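The authors assume throughout that readers already know how a fold can be written as discrete tokens. For illustration, here is how one protein appears when written out as sequence plus structure tokens.
>
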Amino acid sequence: MLILKRTLFYASLLSIWQLIVMLEIWPDYVVPSPSAVFGAVYQGFTEGHFGPGILSSLKRLLIGYGVSVVFGAIMGAALAASKSLEETAGSLFLGLQTLPSVCWLPLALLWFGLTDTAIIFVIVMGSVLSITTGVMTAMKQVPVIWIQASKTLGARGLNLYLRVMLPAAFPAIVEGLRQGWSFAWRSLMAGELLFVTVGLGHLLNVGRELNDMAQVVGVMGVIVAIGLLADRLIFAFADRYISKRWGFRRA
């Protein structure tokens, strides 16, 4: 039933899109037809432009996101464990999180030049603070009575965090990681759009420079598809498994 609903929904969107094109409200170079967009995507894959771009973008994304997860988890746990640290460094992290990721690009270019490291730096700065905040919030939401009961049973120090607080906070931590992934994806596009390098952002720029709106929309569709695929295969699966494992829904 769900598949049918989604199929009808997207079919309706395509029909409305095609109708707008047929009415010629805007010229083709402003609003391309669905067939032109699908043709641009097909051409991009068959001619070997999209494949290397996707692989390059995913490589940068995985490296940057991996670094963000490690440092975000450490900083989030530290902020949750120390009230004084939260009251000092926590305010700094909150302020930095309001910065759009593209604001880090000039600094990255000055430090690392026109390299992949600069883009990875932008990805890390765009996502690590979101993950830090998510982990900290998840850890602080663990019911106090669970912590007190664990201490009564002898759990202390690192054992308390690893055996009690981390498992209790894990479902909420996964949601923080999910949000961090979306920020990393956006940060990657911001970095790739602003200087020439092999990647999906570069393909968007090429389409813009050639006034090829079909390619621009096609690349945007590929970006959305990859984002949805990652969400469904990784985060949605993890959410369902954890919900069943932790007893939040029926098996």
Summary: The longest helix spans residues 157-194. The chain has ten helices and no strands.
